[in-house]
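Internal ticket #5521
Category: modeling
Description: The requester needs a full-assembly model to guide mutagenesis choices. All entity lines are attached below as received. Residue total reported by intake: 606.
Assigned to: D.W.
Attached entities:
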Amino acid sequence: MNRKGVHKTRRPRNQYNTTMASSDPNKLLSKADKLTRLSLTRWSADWKTATVLYEQAANGFRVSKNIEKAKTAYEKASQGQQMLSSPWDAAKHMESAAALAKELSNWREVADFYQKASELFMECGRPQPASDALAKGARALEDTMPEEAIQLYTDAITILEDDEKEQMSFDLYRAVTSVYIKLEKYTDAASSLLRLGLAADKCNATNSQTKAYLGAIIVYLYAHDFKQAEQCYNDCTQIDAFLKSDHSRCAGKFLSAYTDGDVDEIKKIAQSSAVSHLDHAIIRLARKLPTGDVSSLKAVTAEDDEEPLDENDLT
Amino acid sequence: MSVIDLLTRVDSICKKYDKYDLEKHKDANVSGDDAFVRLYSSVNSDIESLLQKAETASKDRGKASAVAINAEIRRTKARLLEEVPKLQRLAVKKVKGLSSQEFAARNDLVLALPERIQAIPDGTPAAPKQTGGWASSASRAEIKFDSDGRFDDEYFQSTDQSNQFRQEYEMRRIKQDQGLDVIAEGLDTLKDMAHDMNEELDRQVPLMDEIDTKVDKASSDLKNTNVRLKDTVNQLRSSRNFCIDIVLLIIILGIAAYLYKFEILRRIGRLVKDRKLEGCSSIRNILLKVC
């Protein structure tokens, strides 16, 4: 260009981007569409250039805050990358599309896009980004479509566990538990905590494990299901790590306070340090203990111990 | 001969030669004469058996059998201790055929018995030394009390001063307990944080390993690429190619010069023919005239 004697002006960077293809994103989009649409004159779609154009269009739209169009452009770019058999880029574009869909509050699309992105990541053989994508989707949907969010979280956890990366799944389990608690499905919350305990056991993460078990017992007590709580406690004490820990002592104190019907004692235990280190959702539950009538529990358990131990009775 | 026959024959032989069995006679003689010796020997044998049982109990430490054996030992010890006074009474009685030394010795033996019985280990921890009142402890030379043993009733009366002191002590203790509670909470939090940090680091170890392998692979790829690039560039810049280039250049220049020279010579020839070259001293003037 210099040889021809044309003076090349220096442009600022962003201007360089939008003017790079010498047209605004809409034009790029239409151009790319033309390249991909099959017609009499075009027997095979030229995905390579089309994908490049789609990406540029999407960037342009994003900069100009045209979210709807940006989302569509990203979708098409992802499709193009798939055609070019590069699932990684396709997945990345899908994720961007999903993030934009989230801003549009288009929840169904958010779920779909994130799932698609996760599948593409799995195609690449990278389970971690796959589960990350699902987790992002679930987080976005927590408030609006909690059932869907739970489903996505569970899928993400399954992916990680298949890859034997249980350590990463702790956060996901905690998120699932908090969603269940918000939905007031306490048995499900407790069971997810128990699964967290199992995952922690596999990685020898004893602190998380004991915290999970204590949390499960507290959830059962909150749901006023004393028998279940006791059963849970008995099951968990089979595990050495739990038996030797502070948390099991705290759980035992809880249960004995319940059997004694001592509300003050329960409140005191809920303030103790063992409980304060749990997940904040569970701490909130613990502070609200005891729910319902503790004295009725006391009557029930007192009946069971009615026959005094007869020392001379050798049976 | 059957076993039964053997046994009956052995029995009859033993009975026949019983009178030659000294030990048995000794025992029989002794037990026949002296109640004291009889009782003493029985107590002795009991003590021996208890010691043996204590040994077996100490070998099976922690088993239920050890506990049972210890309980039995304790019961037997109590029974034996009851028999000691009986022995003492017997010891005082005079028996015919007994020397005075032996008599005195008997007393000592009896006195030594309770200690021996107590000394048998039965699983209880050693009884703490009895202080036996102020008098006996004050009698130890090393331990001294400041007030020289004036421990009468007045000394232990609760005065105002002592009450106040006690109250102050209680207050201070309560404050200490509160402070210790705060410290305990802080330590609990620290412990929890430390555990979480431990788990987090455990989580990151495999990730670091992955990063390690990936970076190693990337760096080896880079090295390979660098080497290949170096080879390619060297090939382009190799001296052989340079020489070839220079030689070809010289040849072209030579050809050009040859052609040019040819042209110049022709022109000089023409000039000479036309006699225009007189007075041209230098070649430059000649060339100027030629062009």
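Resolution: model delivered.
Comment from assignee: Chain B has a mean pLDDT of 80.
Ticket closed.
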